[in-house]
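Re: the request from the purification team.
They wanted to know what the chain is likely to look like in 3D before they choose a buffer screen. I agreed to run a prediction and write the result into the notebook, where they can find it.
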Amino acid sequence: MLWLIVAALALRQMAAVLRQPPDERLTELETWIGPHGVLHVPGSLYDADHFTGTPFAGLVLKPLTRTAEQSLGVAWTSGSLLLVAALGIVAARALPGPVDRRTALLGAPVAISLLMLSLPVRNAFHLGQVSILPVLLVLVGLFAVRGERAAGVLIGVAAALQPTVLLFAVLLRLTGRRRCALAAAGAFTAGTALAWALLPHDSWTYWVHHVAGAGLGDQADSLANQSLHGALLRSGLTGPPEIALFLALGAAVAVIGLRRAVRYARDGQLLLAVAVTGCVAVAVSPTAWQHQLLWVLLAVVGRAGRSASDRMVWPAVVVLVTTLPGTVLLPNIGAAFPVRDNVLLLAALGAACAAPFLPRTSPYWRRPLPTVHARPVASRLRRVPLLPPRRALGRPHLLLELLLLRVVYSAYAHIRLAATAGRETAERHGRQVHAVERWLHIDIERALNHAVAGTGAPRAFLDYYYATFHFLVPLAVLAVLYVRRPADYRWARATLGLATLLALLGFWLYPLAPPRLMPGLGFIDTVHGVQDFTRPDYGALTALTNQYAAMPSLHFGWSLWCGVIIVLLAPKPWMKALGVLHPLCTVTAIVATANHWVLDAVGGAAVVALGFLIAHLLIGPRRLCAAPRPAGVPETPEDKARAVEVRA
């Protein structure tokens, strides 16, 4: 099944490239070797700043100019897929031992799948870049070929294509592989000298005028440049101070990173040492474009964390950072821009200098501290829970939890945005809902809307409540549960996620115009102001939200979820009263502001009820039995309090 997934991803990747118009696919490859590419035209390779590779790379690519344009696209994409497959296989076989049979079987297809989904590989496919090749040459040289000289030659050729790869010669020298390091340096020197002999003007331009390619391609302060140099330029530093700071920081990262890489190599974790050295190369390079950042993904092999609950945090963070764009990982607010714009660089720096990877001699390498689990109390339903009846008592890792919550919410926003069937269908469904409410004699929306619209303070309060509390209260409830009741946090988070997933199905299957978007019914949009219904695109998808995602109402659904959680878990009566008050205020706000029908609130209540029911069927009741403490895990005051609560 995993290999079928690999095949599906490969076909999808090839289709994504080849189905694009000819002028939009393999754009950099076309600029190099197309009919009017720089490798065809007499003169310098760097006249137009389109070619950013080394002169040696120009010599390697020159024979491809004789290939027919149409067949070149197919051949290049197929060849890139084969390189990715080879890279995944070599990386999987290089995992530090001991590796059990299950890991060995899963390694190659999982590695290839992660590579194909990663941003560097997708970017390289789209542009037609050769950045996969240096990574593969290094891995093949270190793990697949025999003989120090052959390995060094492959690494030297990789460095001739991507100069910062020469740092691996330093790694080899520091780990005692002197002959391999000399062969790598010799191969790099020979390739570069050959380019100087055949392309002296271009070599001068690349190595001297542009300082190893630093001035080629996009501006160095572009978001695509994920090096320390690019980050400093984006922070506003320029000129000699920026250069001096970059050199100082680069030297510090190189020293710290290479020392760590040497330590991991001597510990038997050579693949991790390769990943750390590659991340150092990313940070200290003047320009490290997105398609050159594949080294960051290789850092997923590092084991960090003494406990089993923390063991997957580092791999999950690396996969998320190298797979999803920064706009998905972090919100679009100014305070998050320094992190969001440099998220790949920060991951590389973390791998090179900070991540606490375990040595193989650590007692936690193969046997991490076990996670404390508890069983749900016995249920009246015979086949409940359907999943393994255990739930972790400790709180999940905060960084990973925040990342996952952000990613899930971003996915929710994108799916909600795509779930539309057009204005006509949404308005027809709106008339259906309005007719049902009239038949049931619950069509109170217009009267309440006009009563509130003519007031001052009540209208302002309900508008603010509608726009603000929808997000603040669920986040506050989750935060309190995370800190005070971690086991209940996991259960509550599952119920909220299931309810939201069901709501997305409702948005997709039944797009519905809210009262404020129904022409002819006389509703007043108190939040957004007077609307122009004569615009033909009014009410269609906007860049922010799907205005037809009204059934079910997640405003009311999330508020009802908050109310249920607070009533169940709050220790004081006045807190429970606030829990009851919140959904009542929310349903008043969504109806009075003409953003939802009454039946939308009914739909929101239904998906929340189903969310609790499905969570009960899958993972069991909220209440837990007392959990035995695994050997070697000390009891904390939090665990003692939890045991008292469970007994109660």
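For the purification team: The chain has 28 helices and two strands.
Please add any questions underneath this entry.
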